[in-house]
């Protein structure tokens, strides 16, 4: 039998490796930014076009590469970070696998320009699909510039799996945040389609967070600092009152490397136990420093998951440090709930001796004695409070019994006015009332009778369907009723969230929102749809932004459809909300007036029916 096992060609092996390392444009951004940091750069620029599908370029002023290094950097398993296997447990750099540039070059058009500080000229290399097209000497500034164009040009199937530009751009911005947050000593800048998105100068950790997420973030942060033999913790957590419904602002860094850890995230959640509203998540930006020998970062291709030697100790220390900070800065409630701050001792009375208070009493004062005092030509008369007994009090009750009987007889003859009643339009009014009889079950389902048996409606999904079709109609015909606010509503968002709101502004105005001013980090709203309470506006917009970032709006999903779904989900009545009889009947009538009453906007059943025959079978 012939041999069937053979070695793969290099370009095929590189494409397989690329499937692990490069999943989307954001993966390329991560690898290139980390290489720039390892090169000792003080300024890094990221340039994006069409969400990275057309161009991803990273320019740094690091130490650069020689001609040999530049050519060798595109070979598989070529790295300057490690020499032996023991070096894997002493890593203080970002990259070490030696697969990033080789994987990127296998699936894109890559152009590299690099120059070392002591050289007069640099090197330019162009590679297309692992094949070197050209290598020449060029004039270029110190550092390295890597341009990645036409990602997945030779793998159309992978390119078809990419999401919309908005979704891919969100992933790129997330990777940019993860790298820029923890490296405050580097100047970062990001440009998207020719416009500047971020410009982050060298600063401290707190200022870097504020520069990324907006100036309003400064008042939300509580510092966390703990230094032990096992672990050093530094960073910030968000105050409970600013908790969000999404997990967007949650960052763990271990030895300046972003990681994901559900176990450590649970430690933060337990520290906030009792302080957060149901369904909200606290923000945190925590940097952990541990001994490199106690962790293994080589267990995941993207290096976002690491393994700790002693997770239980880290859990306890992290939980205690966060709880300590919340208590130290009076975020957590104290036992003396009724403490009055006006009773606190002022600073200038702190060491002052106390004195016994004296009380002066006029022992000759008699409130029942009339007394006249003269002085300065004026007199004061003290009126006696002694009450005289009422004379002939028995006469008040004479004839009371007879008057009571007479009043009772008169009361029985009283006639009340009533509105005129008209005959019913329907012949059988009782039958109509019986059809629309509804009952609410566990504040979740609405049970109604139908001709063939029983109807059970999920009130949350049904209301979603009603609101969804209403919003779609308003946005389509561009006519919606708006309720003007007495005082404008000022809401604060980050830069990228404002960009999303700008994209949705026109559609939001068609639903009834009125924006009077949209700034870089805030919006001012003067009108809301009639069905939206003012207190829910910020929650609705936050949920909408999250849905736009996380949803996958394919070709058959428009922005209008996504907006209608998100608002319907936020405003629909929740499970557990009690409804009056007329509200139940109104919900049933509105549901069956919809075009698609049987499913919710997310294609889940809104009601089920049970016939009399099915009920009869239950009793057999």
What is the gist of this entry?
With 620 residues, this protein is α+β, with helices and mostly antiparallel strands.
Structural notes for this entry:
The chain has 620 residues and is of the alpha+beta class. The protein folds into 3 domains: 10-200, Heat Shock Protein 90 (2-Layer Sandwich); 205-328, Ribosomal Protein S5, domain 2, CATH 3.30.230; 438-609, Ribosomal Protein S8, Chain: A, domain 1 (2-Layer Sandwich). It is built from 17 helices and 24 strands. The strands form 6 sheets. It has an 8-stranded mixed beta sheet. Strands 9-10-13-11-12 form a 5-stranded mixed beta sheet, sandwiched between helices. Strands 18-19-20-24 form a 4-stranded antiparallel beta sheet. A hairpin with a 6-residue loop joins strand 3 (109-115) and strand 4. The radius of gyration is 37 Å and the shape is globular. The two termini are 67 Å apart. Mean pLDDT is 79; it is low at 423-435 and 552-556.
